[in-house]
């Protein structure tokens, strides 16, 4: 309104208001969607590592987990397509999360320079963490997509021998090695930033700004310790798991299309079924 008056162009108030850019709720909604998708993916990765690392207990346990996802213990027959459905849902979430993250990537030389200047001025460790998150996220665009396409298209080839064969003979281990570090660093920083951003563990009293700042700083310190602890835990677990698949893959390297079948389901059976085995399932998947 002021500008139109100054230019001698007196406008009716309602018309000027109608032309003024309206504040949109969309940036906030997209931010929330990015946080929520990141949180879901982070939680999924914890579960993923728990399932994949069952190989450290025994090939038999890893086999049972894969067959559980294929519905074998419900239908008495394995349906790998069920795994594809889960992969498709995770892939959709991953693509949405990556798409939303693109909004935050510096897009030009000028923006990178501005970021560098800000980072040098602020000298805040969390700014450096953000840069690590951008870098590892960029790597994951490619690495995780390759892995997800593989899982989507060949869900029946997941199992102790099948996975070990892929990791060793299929030479996926270098990709998994890089992806393991990228995902654990990315996820650890992401969950930490979520906790800080949405004040999950804050509880500071805003009425006393000095006390509130001290509490916030203490919470951040604790969260950062937790973040590093989780990243190190999952990287160590992931390295041990990868080593187990590589060792098994090396041992069966000469087998042609190896499939794991537990001893009691082999034909003829090589052992009695364990006590937990459902008696109504007599046949191999
Ligand atoms: C529903 C989707 C997914 C399924 C079914 C799945 C399944 C598997 C399986 C079976 C393995 C063992 C190796 C193999 O069989 O090739 C594996 C390894 C791995 N996956 Fe996934 N995965 C999924 C999604 C993801 C995503 C989204 C990421 C990361 C962004 C990821 C990261 C990894 C890593 C880093 C390893 C190596 C594990 C290690 O070093 O211990 N996976 N995955």
Query: Helix and strand succession?
Result: HHHHHHHHHHH
Secondary structure category:
mainly alpha
Gyration radius, rounded: 26 Å
Helix content: 55-70%
Low-confidence stretches: 1-11
Bound molecules: protoporphyrin IX containing FE
Number of strands: 0
Strand content: under 5%
Task: State the separation between the terminal residues, measured CA to CA.
Answer: 74 Å
Please state the oligomeric state of the protein chains shown. single chain
Could you describe the largest sheet, including whether it forms a barrel?
none
The average pLDDT value, as a whole number, equals 90
| Outline type | elongated
Instruction: Supply the number of helical segments.
Output: 11
Would you mind describing this structure in some detail?
Helices cover 69% and strands 0% of the residues. With 285 residues, it is an all-alpha fold. α10 (173-197) runs antiparallel to α11 (209-251). The protein starts with a helix and ends in a 34-residue tail after the last helix. Protoporphyrin IX containing FE binds next to α3, α6, α8, α9 and α10. Residues 48, 52, 83, 86-87, 90, 94, 140, 144, 147-148, 151, 158, 163, 166-167, 172, 176, 179-180, 183, 238, 241-242, 245 line the site of protoporphyrin IX containing FE (HEM).
Question: Topology, pairings included?
Answer:
Layout: H1 2-6, H2 13-19, H3 26-52, H4 59-69, H5 72-75, H6 81-102, H7 109-122, H8 125-153, H9 160-168, H10 173-197, H11 209-251
The protein binds protoporphyrin IX containing FE (HEM).
Protoporphyrin IX containing FE (HEM) binds at residues 48, 52, 83, 86-87, 90, 94, 140, 144, 147-148, 151, 158, 163, 166-167, 172, 176, 179-180, 183, 238, 241-242, 245.
């Amino acid at each position: 309104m002021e500008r139109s008056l100054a230019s001698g162009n007196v406008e009716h108030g309602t018309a000027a208001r109608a032309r003024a850019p309206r504040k949109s709720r969309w940036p906030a909604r997209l931010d929330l969607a990015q946080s929520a998708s990141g949180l879901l993916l982070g939680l999924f990765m914890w579960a993923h590592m728990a399932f994949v690392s069952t190989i450290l207990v025994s090939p038999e346990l890893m086999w049972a987990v894969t067959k559980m996802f294929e519905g074998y213990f419900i239908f008495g027959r394995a349906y790998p397509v069920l795994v594809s459905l889960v992969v498709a849902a995770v892939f959709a979430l991953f693509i949405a999360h990556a798409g939303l993250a693109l909004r935050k990537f510096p897009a030009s030389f000028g923006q990178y320079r501005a970021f560098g200047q800000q980072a040098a001025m602020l000298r805040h460790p969390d700014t450096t963490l953000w840069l690590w998150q951008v870098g590892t996220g960029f790597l994951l665009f490619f690495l995780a997509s390759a892995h997800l396409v593989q899982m989507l298209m060949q869900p029946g080839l997941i199992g102790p021998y099948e996975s070990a064969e892929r990791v060793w003979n299929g030479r996926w281990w270098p990709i998994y090695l890089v992806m393991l570090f990228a995902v654990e660093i990315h996820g650890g920083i992401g969950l930490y930033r979520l906790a800080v951003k949405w004040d999950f563990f804050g509880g500071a009293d805003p009425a006393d700004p000095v006390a509130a700042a001290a509490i916030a700083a203490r919470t951040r310190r604790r969260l950062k310790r937790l973040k590093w602890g989780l990243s190190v835990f999952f990287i160590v677990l992931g390295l041990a798991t990868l080593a187990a698949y590589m060792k098994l893959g090396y041992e069966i390297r000469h087998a042609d299309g190896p499939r794991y079948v537990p001893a009691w389901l082999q034909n003829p059976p090589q052992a009695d079924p364990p006590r937990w085995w459902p008696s109504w399932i007599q046949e191999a998947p």
